[in-house]
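Quick log. Single chain, no ligands specified.
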Amino acid sequence: MANLPHDTADNSANWLTIDAACQLLGVDQSTLRRWSDSGKVPVFRTPGGHRRYNEEDLKALLHGEARPRRRMSRQVLTDLSFSAYESDFLRQVRSRRWYRAYNARQLEELRALGRKLVDLAIRTISDRTDHEQIAEEGQAIGRRYGTMSAEAGLSADDAVEAFLFFRYPVIQAMTRFIEEEQIPVKRSGRIHMEISQFLDQVLVATVSAHTAANG
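-> predicted structure:
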């Protein structure tokens, strides 16, 4: 599989909301959406469906410059997928019992583990690397999820629901990778299968660790 190159300019990019992008370009939202949908302006969509624009792409458009299509680095793909998930989805789960069961330290660790899980998933589909090693690292994250859930007093059902929540950025990253790389349908199907297998292994490790901690 093709590697995602590390683009330093992309790593330092300033990502704008649609409002800020419209102000920069001097156009209304309907115009910018039309340009985005036609491919004239590259756009990143968050898990909540919000659009984000690379400021440098917009400035190039203003100056009439043709910017070549740039691949996102793995780090940028992880950052955008996870930051969007934090802003859009954390608001939706703060009232859930399983979320309130974690203390501040545990939530901070869960966020760090979530970022690592996204990065591992991206490596699974983008690198020529040791998939067995990646699977082992993913299972280690799952075991930590399970142990922490048991420590927080969560039931097995709540632990699984928490895992399903923290896996969402992985799905977002996979979707973005397929879009960025313009993956053919046949290969995108294989990618979905690989990520599903990876996440299934993490989930099994989560449940096993939770059961062992309560045993």
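Residues 1-12 have pLDDT under 50 and may be disordered.
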